[in-house]
Specification:
With about 400 residues, the protein is α+β, with helices and mostly antiparallel strands. The chain contains 11 helices and 10 strands. The structure holds flavin-adenine dinucleotide. Flavin-adenine dinucleotide binds next to helix 5, strand 1, strand 3, helix 10 and helix 11.
């Protein structure tokens, strides 16, 4: 049976974009899907060869301008890559996904020409990655008020404190650190972003152990012990760091929605096939039961609706017309709907769902991250409700 997601995407995007999607889909089928179980059972991060292959395919440079060594594409390309790879593995998809939507994006949005020339060409090929240092052990949703501080010293700054849950920290050459610089400033104007090399004296990285979601993705804690950086390390304007971070998150949230829909697309195909192949009671498939059909139909509706909405948001984002509320809404809806339906999809497939080989449990676990990552859904609803209350 052809993939249901392909049927929809073919109508939703231009021919050349669909051809690009197909090329990434075929790569993921051939070079990721057959190795995934082994990587999971061996508890390894995305292997270097896989990162290198994705770099050769240009996946780390999709929306980076050609003048900086990228592919000169747009956010739709990034989201199509996310859909194609997340169909098998969100962990693998988030590696170039976060490298671009969280790592390179703040530089593209707010970097000086010198900063872009210094970093974007290597970021565009995957030779270098930036990690996004917003969250801290004591600051998740309340990210506007970091406990990490940066204090002026001579012509530079001294950074202290800890960032956590930083995706791609293992491969990161630099961390974009969001630090408190103006304690008494108005809310949203108290912090500044700095580009800090991960191998700088006083920077200590540790992979966070025990994570049972996105298992092949690197998630690190990074300590800053009186790390001295020059003034030129500032990304964007002084005391405007929160704006740098939240503007970046709009695109990141669209990518998280793509991960959720990639997982949903896999589960839908898995259930459609299983429901026809699982024969019980009078030698007939379980797909004849209306309750089984209900779940499959709901997954199909959610997939078509989610893809249509997400690709619409991508177009608005590329035209610089997507509001924070719109990005938050599509992320909340796709992640919540896909993860709710995944539980029902597993129920349809019964006992086999509990085994890694079958694939659904991986997507079930990974979908949880899409609910909390890049803004927990409950916290994002605070944002979504503002225009509804006239704020
Ligand atoms: C695998 C993984 C990768 C990640 N990668 C990165 C990364 O690369 N960079 C980075 O900076 N961070 C990253 N994060 C962190 C992620 O963005 C945070 O987990 C998220 O912002 C939520 O913060 P928290 O976990 O501290 O939850 P908390 O802020 O403690 O919130 C807990 C719960 O409280 C409720 N809540 C909180 N605030 C509100 C509110 N305003 N209104 C209503 N309810 C609320 C919600 O139910 C929420 O889920 C990652 C996290 C994970 C799990």
């Amino acid at each position: 049976m052809p993939r249901r997601i392909d049927t929809y995407l073919k109508d939703l995007v231009a021919e050349e974009k669909f051809a690009f999607y197909e090329s990434v889909r075929d790569f993921a089928d051939a070079e990721i899907a057959p190795k995934l179980l082994h990587w999971e059972r061996e508890h390894v991060l995305v292997p270097d060869e896989c990162i290198q292959r994705m770099g050769e395919m240009g996946l780390f440079g999709l929306p980076i301008a050609e003048t900086y060594g990228g592919q000169g594409g747009d956010h739709t390309d990034l989201v199509l890559m996310g859909l194609a790879v997340a169909y098998h593995s969100q962990s693998v998809a988030i590696t170039p996904g976060a490298a671009l939507s969280l790592g390179a994006k703040p530089l593209q949005l707010c970097g000086t020409e010198a900063q872009k020339r210094a970093h974007l060409p290597d970021l565009a090929t995957g030779k270098r990655m930036f990690a996004f240092g917003l969250s801290e052990p004591g600051r998740g949703s309340d990210a506007a008020n970091p406990e990490v501080t940066a204090v002026k010293k001579g012509s530079g700054w001294v950074i202290s404190g800890e960032k956590c849950w930083a995706t791609n920290a293992h491969w990161a050459s630099h961390v974009v650190v969001h630090a408190l610089t103006n304690t008494n400033g108005p809310n949203g104007k108290r912090s500044t972003c700095f580009i800090v090399p991960r191998n700088q004296k006083g920077v200590f990285y540790q992979e966070m152990k025990g994570k049972k979601v996105w298992e092949q993705s690197s998630t690190g804690s990074v300590m800053f012990d009186n790390v001295e950086v020059p003034h030129e390390a500032i990304l964007g304007a002084e005391n405007d760091g929160f704006k740098v971070m939240v503007t970046t998150l709009n695109g990141g949230r669209l990518f998280i929605a793509a991960l959720a829909l990639g997982s949903l697309a896999f589960a839908l195909d898995k259930c459609r096939v299983y429901a026809e192949e699982r024969i019980q009671f009078d030698n007939k498939p379980i797909g004849r039961f209306q309750r089984v059909q209900d779940v499959i139909v709901d997954m199909d509706i959610a997939l078509e609706r989610g893809l249509t909405w997400l690709l619409h948001c991508c177009r608005l984002y590329d035209q610089d017309r997507l509001s924070r509320e719109q990005a938050a809404k599509v992320k909340v809806d796709c992640s919540r709907t896909a993860s709710d339906l995944l539980v029902l999809a597993m129920e349809i497939c019964g006992g086999v769902s509990c085994f890694d080989e079958f694939g659904l449990i991986r997507h079930h676990n990974d979908l949880f991250v899409t609910r909390v990552g890049e803004g927990s859904n409950f916290a994002l609803k605070d944002l979504i409700v503002r225009p509804l209350r006239g704020n």
